[in-house]
Batch of 3 targets.
Target 1
Amino acid sequence: MTLAAPLAGEARLETSPMPPPMLPPTKPSAPPSGPALTRRRIAPLAIGSALAMLVPTVVFAWFYLPGFYAMETDDAQIDAHVFSIASKIPAYVAAVNFDDNGRVQAGSVLIGLDPRSFEVAVSGATADLANAEANAANIEAQIAEQQSVIAQADAAIVSDQAAVKFAKDDYDRFEKMTAGHITSVQDAQRAQTILQQQTAQLQRDRAAQGATRAHVAVLETGLRQAQAVTDRARAVLAQARLDLSYTKIYAASAGTVAGRKVEVGDYVQPGQVLVSVVPDALYVTANYKESQLTDVKPGQRVTIRIDAFPSLRLTGHVDSLQRGTGSHFALLPPENATGNFVKVVQRVPVKIVLDDLPERLRGLAPGMSVETRIDIADPPSWLSFLD
């Protein structure tokens, strides 16, 4: 029993963990001093100062420096001289010769209207014109006939004058012979009676001559009236033919149809827009602020970006500047002379013509958004990012 305890105690000593060896204490390193300390402190300050100067420089170069050489705006869109096709006459639509968004050629018939009523109008106007021309020709023939009557009256006057002269000479002879008692008083009286008869005949024929000449004036007035009726009938016929020609509606220029509002069988009224045609020639209308237009002139180079093709850049040139702001030509222009006034920067439309439009972009639609930049001066070569 006395030997078991030491054995157990030895077992406990063998199983207990050994303490870690004691290391000598380390001395703290001394802080650097001299040139090394100076370099470590100056380097971050230099980098920070350089960044503090570089960032504003980059911001200025990126946002403000281009303004000295170019003027940009995103208030721009594709535009074209779109023309609308409208009817000039009331009629039913008989044919539509185009497809939705299809191409049309200049002079092609787009829409055909029912021509039957207008053909009847042309026939009636033709008959009225023929009647008026016949009436005028009849009056012209009467005037020609009246000239013959006038000539006959003139001849009768000459004959009467000769008869009166003979009767007067005969009466003078019988009167002398009666005074010399060569012939009887009865013969002188007979000669006097014949003279009176011939004188009365001359007066009657002169009156008839005046009537025939006056009738010519009446006929000439009727002729002018008939000619006026003829001209009127000719004008009615021309209008009827013109209305008949309106039954075929043509395309004024080549382009693409848009905004179709007509179908076969529709009854259209004069002035009713049936379809619009977008011509092939496109341009850009850019609305620049008035403060940006100081140095903008026609002919300056323009860079164009289309929202539908963001990776594509097109070139153009300034064609013209509208003489008036957009608000001035608005439906309800502002009235600055009344009420309170708040100054608002106005925008002026600038027309930009595309220099060369790729074939695949011929289908650009008016109203599509674009961004434009007008080069008002040549930038230095190191500002190549402006291009």
Target 2
Amino acid sequence: MTEKTEEGTKRFSFLLTDDEKLSWKSFIEKNNISTISKLLRQSVDFYLKNYSTLEFFRDFSKTLHKLKEPLGNIKAICEILLNEKKAEIKWENLSLIKDIFDQAEILQERIANMNKLNTGEVTDFDVLIVDDDPLINKILTHFFEDNGYRCKKAINGKETLEILNNSHPRLILLDIVLPDISGYDVCKKIKSNQDLKNIPVYYITALSASEVREQTKNTAADGYVLKPFKFHEFEQLFSIIS
């Protein structure tokens, strides 16, 4: 809000919550800025000087997003050729396909990183991986982090729901057989929560496809990936995270 002073100048005031005030105070102390007023002046000055650049980056982010899907398709096709058609392809062509796959992977990772810099984040991680198998957690974390996404791990339903009390990831990968609460019940709780229901939930499980398919409908989950999984199945989810 604004108010007029006796001198005729306008004073700008901001209504902040106590948590916001504490965050600003912490930022000021950490960055050696003497007052909140000084921080505001610097912020406004930066925005005015860089407005056109910031607008460019907003459009640039849309372009980056459009590039990610075809790159994912290129990688998936290369993976199919390398894994399923290997015996039918000459060695020199296999080498070329592998190079294309590697370059597409590098470019996809760079796009993901650039998109994060340009759009900012509303949470401290992108993907919540829920599985009581440490190896699965490690493999999936390594895969998504290699592609530029930040991950957080949980090993049971209780921990998952506690994490979601304070965070809103862009994607949840949820095992069904957990040591405390069924993944089905965890998903029901997520989808019945007004603040969480729009977060995509994908089951990762070794249960039969027929059962999981039916329960996916019943629990309002967004999809599933069966174990043992292939990485290209998760690459199709990159567009959801961005």
Target 3
Amino acid sequence: MDENSPKLIQSVQRAIDILNCFDFLTPSLTLNDISERTELNINTTRGLINTLVANKLLIHDKTNNIYQLGYYFIDKASVIQKRIQAYINIFKPFMDKLADQYHVSASIQMINQESAFSIYCAYPKNAAYYIIISEYTDLPKHATSSGKLLLDTLYQNDPAYLNKVELKQFTPNTIKTKKALLKSLTEVHKNQYAQEIEESTLDVGSLAVPIYDAQGHLVITVSATFFVKNLDGIKDKLLAELKHIASSIAVKLGTDSD
């Protein structure tokens, strides 16, 4: 662990590690499964699981002797969903108009610590073809425009963060070296917008503009995804419109998009 990282409470971290064992592919696990996945002693695992069950974070199916995530999360998720819906209500008219005007896929991304994910995507009504954006999927930081905005923020706060970035290759155009990544982030920071061209998907590119909160933290990005062959004819106007949207909404949110 980095010497500047905050000290973690071991028992809490172990409980979180147990919860992280569950996902769409493995919604149910046995005690032994969880012990193996977390590499914890079976008795330690049992004690932590019993505590999680008592607090409704896990459910114990005694018939099949398996564990699942508890209904505790439904109530908490509704709190988060309410906040997300509030953002969508503000952004939707802007993004719908942008998608139709430029025949692009227009989306907003929320930033959650080290993750960026789309929460609303607008598509052009009269386009024969358009690009579908995956919602609630963690975007690769080095290969997407919104990801680069997030990565720039993380890098500005901690230059050593780049050492953690895995440069997974999606296309021949994906950034391959930390030197090239740093050069890209320098441009992002200077221009206050990010661009990627065929770095995540061939023939596809994107532009993204940041929105910061009152403390200067990146909270949302607005982006447009398009077929690269169309970029030359629309880039300047599209980028200007994205910046206008970010600035307009920053005022509504009482934040700063500069």
